[in-house]
Amino acid sequence: MAGKALARELPARAEAGKVLQSTDDELMDVVAAAFKVRLRYFGRRVKLNYLVNIKSGLCPEDCSYCSQRLGSSADVLKYTWLKPAEVISSAEAGVQAGAKRVCLVASGRGPNDADITRVSTAITKFKEKNPDVEVCACLGLLSDGQAERLHQAGTTAYNHNLNTAESNYKDICTTHDYADRADTVQKAKQGGLSPCSGLIAGMGETDEELVDVVFALRELDPDSVPVNFLIPFEGTPLGGQWSLTPQRCLRILAMVRFACPDAEVRLAGGREIHLRSLQPLALHIVNSIFLGDYLTSEGQAGARDLEMIADAGFTVEGADERTLPEHRRDLVKVRRRGAGTALPANA
Ligand code: SF4
């Protein structure tokens, strides 16, 4: 599988399933194979991302894993849109701690045009002061033209996760569907934003469903793939669901690395509580983590993350280093058909 990944070939479904079913005796071989791929495309660099929750709680949607969902009794912070100055100062705190990308996240089904204006204002001002820092927006389902507006404001990327397999989606959310999510990832891409889309493991899904969502992500070809492990908040339908082990988390991360070898695979929410003392092993598979706290839960202190990276022999990726390998530029095909050309739209 490492050989295929190094040739950027998709593994067979059965091979991906075998990674998930590998034994504990085989685990270090799996990690070592995934490390070969990580090393080829990302060296020993770890990219740091920093989350800013710019609107928290009180969401009308019912995603069952989410502490901000409709009817959640989880005791999370609830507030409406932060002012641009507050967004900027929170984001700059992450930059000072070493983050190369700040992720501005808002609860809700999706932004209206006034919300896009509000977020764009904050992003443009932030980028004026911090031109080298990447900004990712995560605002929910996008309508036509909104990705383009965010792009014009200086936004680098847009996050919208597929979360789980299409066949499983209705079991985790009834207020929007999988197709809505995939559509937003496409809109982000078409609007000029670097697509970021990943999954949440540990919601009761089967191995088959995990392979499904990872292969669907590979089809969408996001530049970055956050892998979350369910944080089972009390007060949500999935509260108390603890099905993951540190070893299973490593197998899931390795499977994602084999399927998306040259994408930024980001170890996201739940790493501390599920991987626990095996977190440094995960750095051999992923090339990106969130620094410090998550949206509504506390993570490991940023200083401990930096210590862990150094202890495991990795280095923090600098602002002047490319994250994605050079060849991924080839995947961006300059449009040469349709409006403004002599060729028909489908040539
Ligand atoms: S994941 Fe997003 S859309 Fe779903 S309930 Fe949470 S904040 Fe709302």
What would you call the shape?
globular
DSSP, total strands: 10
Rg over C-alpha atoms, rounded to the nearest angstrom: 19 Å
Task: Estimate the mean pLDDT confidence.
Answer: 91
The secondary structure category is: alpha/beta
Q: Termini, distance in Å?
A: 36 Å
Poorly predicted regions: 331-341
The share of residues in extended strands comes to 5-15%
Q: What is the tally of helical segments?
A: 13
Helix proportion: 25-40%
- Bound chemical compounds: iron/sulfur cluster
Largest sheet: 10 strands, parallel
What does this structure look like?
With 347 residues, the protein is of the alpha/beta class. It is built from 13 helices and ten strands. Strands 1, 2, 3, 4, 5, 6, 7, 8, 9 and 10 form a ten-stranded parallel β-sheet that branches. Helix 4 (84-96) crosses helix 5. The longest helix is centred in the middle third of the chain and has 17 residues, at 113-129. The model is unreliable at 331-341 (pLDDT under 50). Bound molecules: iron/sulfur cluster. Residues 59, 61, 63, 66, 68-69, 107, 109, 140 line the site of iron/sulfur cluster.
